[in-house]
C-alpha cells in the first residue's frame, strides 16, 4: 500500500493568534486530512487568524478543495478568519473554476 501522506507536507507556525500553514506537494483525497488537522490544531492552540500558504502545491483537485471548504467552516465556527495567501497555479485554477477564489484569496494577494 502506498503512503499518500508523503505526497504533501504541512508545516504550521503559530505567532500569537496568527497561524501560517504552509502546504507543499499535492492536495487531494489522500492528503486533505493533513490540512484539516493542521487547521483544527492551530485553532485549538488559540489561532484566530489563519493564513494558508499554498505557493508550493503542485496539484489540487476537488477533494482538496473540499478540505479547504471544511477548514473554512471549522475556522468560521470558531470565530477565526482563514485565507489562502499564496495560491499555486494548480490551486488557483481550481479556485477560479469553482468561483471560490474570491472566498479564499484576498484582493491584495
Q: Care to describe what's here?
A:
The chain has 109 residues and is of the alpha/beta class. It is 39% helix and 34% strand. Strands 1-2-3-4 form a 4-stranded mixed beta sheet, covered by helices on one side. Strand 2, helix 1 and strand 3 form a beta-alpha-beta unit. Helix 1 runs parallel beside helix 2. The model has no long low-confidence stretch (mean pLDDT 92).
The ordered string of helix (H) and strand (E) elements is EEHEHEHH
Task: Tell me the β content.
Answer: 25-35%
End-to-end gap = 39 Å
The pLDDT mean sits at 92
Descriptive terms for the model:
globular; 109 residues; 4 helices; 39% helix; alpha/beta; four-stranded mixed β-sheet
Concise overview:
This protein has four helices and four strands. The chain is an alpha/beta fold and 109 residues long. Helix 1 packs parallel to helix 2.
Please render the helix and strand layout as text.
Blueprint: E1 8-15, E2 18-27, H1 32-44, E3 49-60, H2 62-77, E4 81-87, H3 89-98, H4 101-104
Parallel strand pairs: 2-3, 3-4
Antiparallel strand pairs: 1-2
Helix pairs in contact: 1-2
Amino acid at each position: 500500500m502506498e503512503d499518500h501522506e508523503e505526497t504533501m507536507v504541512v508545516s504550521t507556525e503559530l505567532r500569537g493568534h496568527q497561524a501560517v500553514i504552509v502546504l507543499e506537494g499535492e492536495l487531494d483525497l489522500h492528503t486533505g486530512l493533513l490540512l484539516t488537522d493542521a487547521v483544527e490544531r492551530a485553532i485549538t492552540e488559540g489561532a484566530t487568524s489563519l493564513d494558508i500558504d499554498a505557493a508550493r502545491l503542485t496539484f489540487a483537485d476537488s477533494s482538496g478543495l473540499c478540505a479547504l471548504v471544511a477548514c473554512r467552516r471549522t475556522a468560521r465556527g470558531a470565530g477565526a478568519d482563514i485565507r489562502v495567501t499564496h495560491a499555486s497555479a494548480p490551486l488557483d485554477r481550481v479556485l477560479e473554476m469553482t468561483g471560490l477564489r474570491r472566498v479564499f484569496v484576498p484582493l491584495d494577494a
